[in-house]
Design a protein that fits this description.
Length: about 220
């Protein structure tokens, strides 16, 4: 089987407060999406990377001039719909049921090729597949709308899910079609089928740029890479 990467980059980045889709915000001299794609380009085992854009994206060509990889304007209203659109496109371009697809958020621009290699090494002979994740170090609180603690949650068996998440093309397509727009990641859709994805421990440096203050942290890390 081959390995494909699929990068959903069709979000609006509302929480970032950037006033534009955050994947196009420049960090350390390049748009966030360029950093993400550069890291994936350094993984020789990936046969191809497909970038999923919004159908009305007007920034990609200027942000990544001359980009030679696969691009599809099939993004949807939710991340899951964008990934489903990308999976259909990968199938059109020849991905088979048992080829692996590594879905990676455009907004995780700190990605390092060695983390992708670690995921592939850990999962390529797994019956289900898996994801990069980080064990929770902080004490976990549940809170109410008024910003008060309602409970302390046992953190010992909790992990923060990251990406890439790696599953067979046929399985993840079926799983997302069943769970639909509600799935915030591929693993939860696969779990809903009764399967248990493998957790592959990684670094918290693989965080998702989400809030306004995250850009500064990402800049510092990218400038000192
Ligand atoms: N994404 C996507 N299509 C959507 C929503 C999200 O392709 N309809 C992508 C984003 O571009 C991002 C990744 O999924 O790379 C993770 O999503 P998130 O961090 O939530 O990004 P946004 O949805 O853009 O941000 P926000 O939720 O703050 O609006
Ligand atoms: Mg979102």
């Amino acid at each position: 089987p081959r390995f494909f990467a699929l990068v959903p980059a069709a979000g609006v980045g509302e929480r970032s407060g950037a006033g534009m889709p955050k994947q196009y915000v420049e960090i350390a001299g390049r748009p966030m999406l360029a950093h993400t794609l550069a890291a994936l380009a350094e993984v020789p085992r990936l046969a191809q990377t497909l970038v999923v854009l919004s159908p009305d994206d007007e920034r990609f060509e200027a942000a990544l001039p001359g980009y030679a990889g696969w691009v599809a304007r099939v993004g949807g209203a939710s991340r899951a719909e964008s990934v489903l659109g990308g999976l259909a496109e990968l199938r059109r371009r020849g991905a088979a049921d048992d080829d692996w697809v590594l879905v990676h958020d455009a907004a995780r621009c700190l990605l390092r090729p060695e983390w992708v290699d670690a995921l592939i090494d850990a999962c390529q002979h797994d019956a289900v597949g898996g994801l990069l994740a980080q064990p929770i170090a902080d004490t976990l609180k549940a809170g109410d709308a008024g910003g008060r603690v309602t409970a302390t949650v046992d953190r010992r068996d909790k992990w923060a899910a990251q990406t890439p998440q790696m599953f067979r093309a046929g399985l993840v397509q079926r799983a997302l079609a069943v769970l639909g727009a509600a799935a915030t990641d591929e693993a939860s859709a696969v779990e809903a089928l009764g399967l248990a994805p493998r957790l592959v421990r990684t670094s918290m440096a693989n965080f998702k740029v989400t809030w306004p203050e995250d850009f500064e942290l990402a800049r510092r890390l990218l400038e000192h890479k």
